[in-house]
Design goal:
Distance between the termini: 32 Å
Largest sheet: 8 strands, mixed
Strand order of the largest sheet: 6-5-14-15-16-13-17-20
Length: about 400
């Protein structure tokens, strides 16, 4: 099998890249190790930055998002029983975010790819990337019980942290920057309307909490818990009781309870792999970088990567110049490190570290009070949350 761009992974990054390349007249093949049902139901991110939503619209994949997604013009910060709303459009010249689950983005892009795009092979496990430093890289994969080879001009690894793409870059050429956090998020899905119409980020002496949603009838909520926590060790009643404590305010706001349909624990880490390119192999998304979910940046960073690659390849196709492709890693990393910085700032602002002192607690409250009282500090948060420019 032969194609111009071999894409490993049919998450939102790989699927969007295939769509962008199709719209630019460049052929591709997508290899996905899981079946379609798994890809369309795995729960991940739910916040789309302004730029991500705009890219999906321009790619022809925004109709259902605009019909069913929830536009949010701000978030609420809670600390010391106080409430402060950050108004995104007022601080960023009109920018906002969209609540629309990654599962729904994948469904939309899969439908478009199967109807209009190139081959999308489910249950096609990429085994290795070979000859990445040559003009003819190859992906060895297993599909329908037999091994095959995808011959490419370029390979883009959108196959996540545990995928094979990054392993094809020689270790002596790479640098890894990472930080692990001594806590995670206990997340739940609940069949109850959200108790607030925007996301609520709460800093509490007992730990962080987040009120989010998947739809007008389904709530998504999180609690900071110690690293290694077993989700099933928490009863439903214990979860709701702890959420109530951490979201407590001085007014009459109340948290609505409902049946919990899913529990899981998400570990927290920051990770960046440099460079993001080796020869004709390019990394995108979690294959190259991971952020703690506090800043809602993971999916949006992956979109920035594939937009950068698609633009660069289209530029080379049109002009013959490899300038933008050669700058791919540097271009992406500028945005990635800003997102890493923002995610780290949000995480350390809102989570209470084990063994935190009273001095550290007061510093957190002072930082939050600064955001609530300074337009400049509030603007910095709003600009970071709604998204840094692509490229």
């Amino acid at each position: 099998m032969r194609t111009t761009v071999g894409i490993i992974g049919a998450g939102p990054a790989g699927l969007l890249l295939a769509r962008l390349l199709h719209n630019a007249g460049i052929d591709s093949v997508v290899l996905e190790s899981r079946d379609r049902a798994y890809v369309e139901r795995r729960q991940r991110a739910g916040i789309l930055e302004q730029g991500t939503a705009d890219v999906l619209r321009a790619a022809g994949a925004g109709q259902r998002m605009d019909r069913e997604g929830l536009r949010h013009d701000g978030i609420e910060l809670r600390f010391d029983r106080r409430r402060h709303r950050v108004d995104f459009p007022a601080l960023t010249g009109g920018r906002s975010v969209m609540v629309y689950a990654q599962t729904e983005v994948c469904k939309d892009l899969i439908a478009l790819q199967l109807a209009e795009g190139g081959p999308l092979l489910f249950e096609a496990e990429a085994l290795a990337v070979a000859d990445a430093a040559t003009d003819a890289p190859r992906v060895r994969f297993r599909h329908q019980g037999r091994e095959d080879v995808l011959e490419c001009e370029y390979v883009v690894g959108c196959d996540g942290f545990w995928g094979v793409a990054r392993k094809a870059i020689p270790a002596e050429l790479t640098q890894v920057f990472e930080r692990t956090y001594p806590f995670g998020w206990l997340g739940i899905l609940a069949d109850v309307p959200p108790s607030h119409d925007e996301l609520v980020y709460a800093r509490h002496d007992r730990g962080f909490a987040l009120l989010s949603m998947r739809s007008p009838s389904v709530s998504r909520l999180y609690l900071q818990v110690p690293d290694g926590t077993d989700a099933e060790a928490w009863s439903d009643e214990e979860i709701w009781d702890e959420l109530e404590r951490r979201f407590e305010t001085a007014d009459d706001w109340r948290l609505e309870r409902g049946p919990i349909t899913q529990k899981s624990v998400t570990p927290m880490r920051s990770y960046v792999h440099e460079p993001m390119r080796h020869g004709r192999l390019f990394l995108a998304g979690d294959a190259a970088h991971i952020v703690p979910p506090t800043g809602a940046k993971g999916l949006n960073l992956a979109v920035g990567d594939v937009v950068t690659f698609a633009r660069a390849l289209a530029h080379q196709t049109a002009t013959g110049s490899p300038e933008l492709l050669d700058a791919y890693s540097e271009t992406c990393l500028r945005r990635i490190w800003q997102a890493e910085r923002f995610s780290y700032d949000m995480t350390t602002l809102l989570h209470r570290a084990p063994g935190a002192t009273g001095f550290e607690d007061r510093l957190q409250l002072a930082r939050l009070d600064r955001i609530a009282s300074s337009r400049a500090a509030e603007t910095d948060l709003a600009e970071g949350y709604t998204g840094f420019p692509f490229g």
